[in-house]
Design brief:
Order of helices and strands: HH
Strand content: under 5%
Largest sheet: none
Number of strands: 0
Number of helices: 2
Distance between the termini: 18 Å
Low-confidence stretches: none
Radius of gyration: 11 Å
């Protein structure tokens, strides 16, 4: 399955769940903040289902 790209100028047109998941992913990737595995799994699953990231299959 091809991975979608994120166009931040169109982010407001995405469902709130996608907006939150993208914000989490960006913060988790850039900031030295710790998140629970449950939070990470929840948001990553949303992004996987929407086609923004590939499945990790852990």
């Amino acid at each position: 399955m091809p991975v979608k790209t994120i166009n931040f100028s169109e982010l407001d047109s995405q469902p709130i769940e996608i907006q939150e998941a993208i914000a989490f992913y960006a913060a988790h990737t850039v900031l030295p903040v710790h998140f629970s595995a449950a939070d990470r799994d929840r948001y990553y699953k949303i992004l996987e289902q929407a086609g923004f990231i590939e499945s990790v299959n852990m």
